[in-house]
Structures are given as structure tokens and as C-alpha cells.
Write a structure and sequence with these properties.
The protein has 394 residues and is an alpha/beta fold. 40% of the residues lie in helices and 14% in strands. The chain has 13 helices and 15 strands. The strands form 3 sheets. The chain has an 8-stranded mixed beta sheet, sandwiched between helices. It has a 4-stranded antiparallel beta sheet with strand order 7-6-12-11, with no helix packed on it. Strands 10-13-15 form a 3-stranded antiparallel beta sheet. Strand 6 and strand 7 form a beta hairpin. The radius of gyration is 21 Å and the shape is globular. The two termini are 19 Å apart. Bound molecules: pyridoxal-5'-phosphate. Pyridoxal-5'-phosphate binds next to helix 4 and helix 5.
Length: 394
């Protein structure tokens, strides 16, 4: 029997860069500037360079990054503190709750559009169909103002088409890049293609801190200024405030840790891609199994997947049995996500659906994410693949 294989091994990642992290923490202990300390500015500067955008603004979480970006958009587009319930924002039902929840918290109504079965990302054809239909029959009472594409599992959405639709229908695009730090579409880093991008530094994300943290990026000066106000209570001056704000800045301590981890992000993302190829070749050609797409380069676009998750789809109702089999053999797996957003209580009566969401519902019953610790030995993944193959072929 193998030792337990976890989804990630954060102890191991800490040990890998322990001297640098300990030193960074010690520097903070010495300067004691816990709020907006020098590491925050430095992190924002380095992220701006890494991503290739004008502004990066650290936030207290990825969720807050989404909320703050939406609130700033309401301010810019409508001159209001919040969106109205009649403002629709298109997104995927197959994401973490926070994506949809942020739309509600910004006052708007989520409009769920089904996913593409191969990528599990929102299907641009569904977006176009919904927008074209609602133009001719505006029966829902909703006016769509924007799209939040979610780059699920580290894989880019089909951004050319999403940006073309946004242009045609005059919509903002807020990229949810929580799972895809460092990934790109056509050589552009994700988060910098739309109007703004929201990132999460939750500990298990590709670039993860030691607690909550996040960031918004944009090239729009007006949005950036609004977001900077919103994360510190809503005013340029903390003691004389204009907007309904939050206390949603990133901690100096998290920024210090993330500055160290940022030095390793390309190496770690490469290691993830290597693990993904290893899994892919070991699991090729098995019945009842659909593998994620690897990086591809075509005449249409080039995509750089950072494999936040390596997520397989197990057909014919065998997902849960396979999961049990792996658990018996000490291999952890996760289901992202077991319940699509349109099935959750919080979205009942507060959201709208663009037709049947069959693919999202099917995916919730078939997806299974496998361990993908970047520092784990190859042999471990070969063993995991062997267990899967053995089970599905028996
Ligand atoms: C993690 C995640 C978020 C939220 O980020 P937090 O930092 O946990 O608030 C939002 N969207 C997606 C797709 C995520 O995976």
C-alpha cells in the first residue's frame, strides 16, 4: 500500500522555500508596518510587470476582488454604488460559489449560461445565442451589462469569441482568474484580456499565500482609482468617505510571502503541466474516461493551461465508485463542483438561466480532480494512474 497521496502538500512547498519565506516574515516582524506595508506596493509592482498590465490592486481575498471590481464597474458605468436587479451579468454555473455570489453582492442578477463539455468552461456559443434571443424578445426584464468568464482548472476560456461578443453587445468582461494565475491565451496573461481580472491567493491556488488574499488587475485608470478607494472604506481619505466601501486590502504579511512564491510560480506551473502530461499519457485510451485538453497551439489561438486541477470526467456513472476505490488506496481526490450554482438555495429567485444547463449538471456528476502537488515524485502519479486504469478496465 502507498502512503497517503494528498491533492497538494503545502508543508513540502514551504520547506522548499523555507529560508526565503522565514527571512521575508522576519523583515515584516522588524518593520511592523502591517497595513499597506512596503511589501504590498512591491507585490503590486511585480504583479503588474509579470502580467503585463497597468494596475494591480491587492485585496483581502479573491471573492473581495470580484466584488470590488463589480462595484467599481457599477460606479463607472451607471454612476451608482450598486448595479440594479435588472442588470444581468452572464457567467458559468460550473464554478465556485463566490463568482455568482459576488454578482449578487454587487446588486446585479447572475445569468447562467451552460458550459462546453470538453473544457467545462462557459460556452461562448451559448452566450451569443442568449444575447441574440433576448434582443428580439426582452421578456426577462433583464438588460445584460457584462460577462464573468471563469478560467476553470487553470484553462483559459475561449477569449477571442468572448471579447468579440462583448464588443458587439457593449459588455464589460471581468475575468475570474482565481484558478489560472500565470496561464495565457494567445501569449496574453489571463486577467489582462478583459476589462479587469480578479485573482485569488487562497492557500491552495497556484499562487497561494498563508491565509486569504487576492488581487484585481486592470488597464483602466478610472476603475483602478475606484477600486483603490473601495478596498479602504470607500474614500480617497479614510476619514472623509464618498462611497460604500469595505476593509478589503491585502495584508502586508501575505504580500511578503507571495513575493517569495512569485519567484517560483513559472517553475511550479511547469511542474504542474509535466504532471498533467504524465497523467495524460498514462490514462490515454481508457473507456469511460475523458481527459482534460493539454496546451494547444492552433491557427486560431495558443493556450497555456496551468493545471490548477487535473480534472478527468468519468462516464457511465462510475465516478463515485472510482473515487471510493482511490480513497481505499489512500489517494485523495476532489469534486469541483458537486452542485452547479443554479441548483443552490442562494441563487433561487435571484438568478436567471439561459435555457437548460445540461452540460453543467452532467459535469457535476462526472468530474474528478486528481492529486497534483508540483513537488511530488513522478512515480506517485504513475501509481495513481495505474490504480485508475486498473479499476476502469476491470
Ligand atoms: C477560489 C475561487 C474564488 C474565490 O477566491 P477566495 O480567495 O477564496 O475568496 C473565486 N472564484 C473561483 C473560480 C475560485 O476558484
Amino acid at each position: 500500500m502507498m502512503r497517503k497521496v494528498q491533492m497538494l502538500d503545502l508543508h513540502r512547498e514551504y520547506q522548499y522555500m523555507q529560508a526565503e519565506i522565514d527571512e521575508a516574515l522576519k523583515r515584516c516582524l522588524n518593520h511592523q508596518q502591517w497595513i499597506f506595508g512596503p511589501e504590498v506596493k512591491e507585490l503590486e509592482n511585480q504583479l503588474t510587470q509579470y502580467l503585463g498590465c497597468t494596475h494591480c490592486i491587492g485585496t483581502s481575498s479573491g471573492t473581495d476582488a470580484l466584488v470590488v471590481a463589480l462595484r467599481a464597474l457599477a460606479n463607472k458605468l451607471k454612476g451608482q454604488e450598486y448595479f440594479d436587479r435588472t442588470d444581468g451579468i452572464i457567467t458559468t454555473p460550473f464554478t465556485f460559489t463566490a463568482t455568482g455570489d459576488a454578482i449578487l453582492r454587487a446588486g446585479a442578477t447572475p445569468v447562467f449560461v451552460d458550459i462546453h463539455p470538453a473544457t467545462c468552461n462557459i460556452n461562448p456559443a451559448g452566450i451569443r445565442e442568449y444575447l441574440t434571443r433576448s434582443k428580439t424578445q426582452p421578456a426577462t426584464g433583464l438588460r445584460v451589462v457584462g460577462i464573468i468568464p471563469v478560467h476553470l482548472y487553470g484553462q483559459s476560456c475561449y477569449m477571442d469569441e468572448i471579447m468579440a461578443i462583448a464588443k458587439e453587445f457593449d459588455l464589460f468582461v471581468l475575468e475570474d482568474v482565481a484558478q489560472a494565475f500565470g496561464a495565457s491565451w494567445d501569449s496574453k496573461k489571463l486577467g489582462t484580456i478583459g476589462t479587469a481580472g480578479a485573482f485569488s491567493f487562497f492557500p491552495s491556488k497556484n499562487l497561494g499565500g498563508f491565509g486569504d488574499g487576492g488581487m484585481v488587475c486592470t488597464d483602466d485608470d478610472e476603475l483602478a482609482a475606484a477600486m483603490r478607494m473601495l478596498i479602504k472604506h470607500g474614500g480617497r481619505d479614510k476619514y472623509n468617505v464618498d462611497h460604500i466601501g469595505y476593509n478589503a486590502r491585502i495584508d502586508t504579511l501575505q504580500a511578503a510571502i507571495l513575493l517569495v512564491k512569485l519567484r517560483y510560480i513559472d517553475e511550479f506551473n511547469r511542474r504542474r503541466a509535466n504532471i498533467a502530461s504524465l497523467y495524460s499519457s498514462a490514462l490515454k485510451g481508457i473507456d469511460d474516461l475523458v481527459l482534460p485538453r493539454e496546451n494547444y497551439s492552433s491557427s486560431v489561438a495558443e493556450m497555456d493551461h496551468v493545471f490548477h486541477q487535473f480534472t478527468i470526467q468519468v462516464l457511465n456513472g462510475r465516478r463515485d465508485e472510482l473515487r471510493d476505490h482511490l480513497a481505499l488506496n489512500m489517494v485523495d481526490t476532489m469534486i469541483y463542483y458537486p452542485v452547479p450554482l443554479h441548483k443552490m438555495g442562494v441563487f433561487q429567485g435571484r438568478s436567471s438561466v439561459a435555457g437548460q444547463l445540461d452540460q453543467a449538471e452532467r459535469a457535476s456528476e462526472e468530474v474528478l480532480s486528481l492529486p497534483i502537488e508540483p513537488l511530488e515524485e513522478e512515480e506517485t502519479f504513475t501509481n495513481v494512474a495505474g490504480l485508475i486504469k486498473g479499476f476502469l478496465e476491470s
